[in-house]
Amino acid sequence: MENTDQLTHAPPLPPWLEQELPWRRRMFTGGDYPMHFIDEGSGPPVLMQHGNPTWCYLWRKVIGELVSQPVRVIAPDLIGLGLSGKPRNAAIHTPAFHGEQLSKLIRALDLEEITVVGQDWGGPITGLAAALNPERVRAAVFANTSLRVPEKAPRVTPFHRFANIPVLSDLAFRLLNFPLPVMRKVQGDPASLGKAEMRAYRYPLRRFRDRTAPLALARMVPTHLDHPSIPHLTRANRWAREFGGPVELVWGCRDPILGRALGSNRELFPRARVTETEAGHFLQEEVPEALAAAILRVTSAGQGEEEPQ
Hints:
The protein contains eleven helices and nine strands. It has one domain (4-300): Rossmann fold. It is an alpha/beta fold and 309 residues long. A nine-stranded mixed sheet has the order 1-2-3-5-4-6-7-8-9, with helices on both faces. Strand 8 (247-252), helix 10 (262-268) and strand 9 (273-277) form a beta-alpha-beta unit.
């Protein structure tokens, strides 16, 4: 049963944005900071988690594909992003912190038989939440993310190398709202992020004081084997290796950040069905139908079958 004392209505959005997100939106107040989330439909829950620097708006096309289906779609905003609370202390941003916040939402909503869906940081964060609630998770879909812990010095992308340059990266992320200005560059089709889409992505980070999380999340990515994120990610990695439910991988192969991570995720989930696309990093904008189809396949897998005698 839901803990209704920890759930309230979400504040209104500007009309131009409300029409893009016409579904039920709620606030969860039982965590360390308020968490905003979409909660629409009825049926087996599908918990979809975005990454950096986006918010639940990223899932709107996928949600549009799913709302007519017998599933309940739940799409939270990570703390520090979207319409969730925005702490100013960068040190609170660890994989464990975000996994725990998502776990608290799962328990407050009393979700069972969950299909977890994660992209970018949403992958390991849902993995950590699943590790805290293994009996509640039934299936998974992962897209352009990485749940594998590096066993040798990780390959550091130019983006993450830049994010770890003191002062310069602080100025870029704070003053220029980085990496929003370069989101198009990681897409298979740059036109998939037009002026209207970028206006929506900028909206939650329009104030200078609210821009702590994007840099903190960028710095959470391991750049060496002694990185403080490694112990937390090890737990998500362990859950992934032990998980026995249905899994699908949907990949944007033109992603310069995590396109090559498909191979390591195949190793984690050797039985997973894989859908390769020509999309980029934010593949929800380019191939929402492929993601929705994968979600519906794993959600329905095994349903209606007789139990073995």
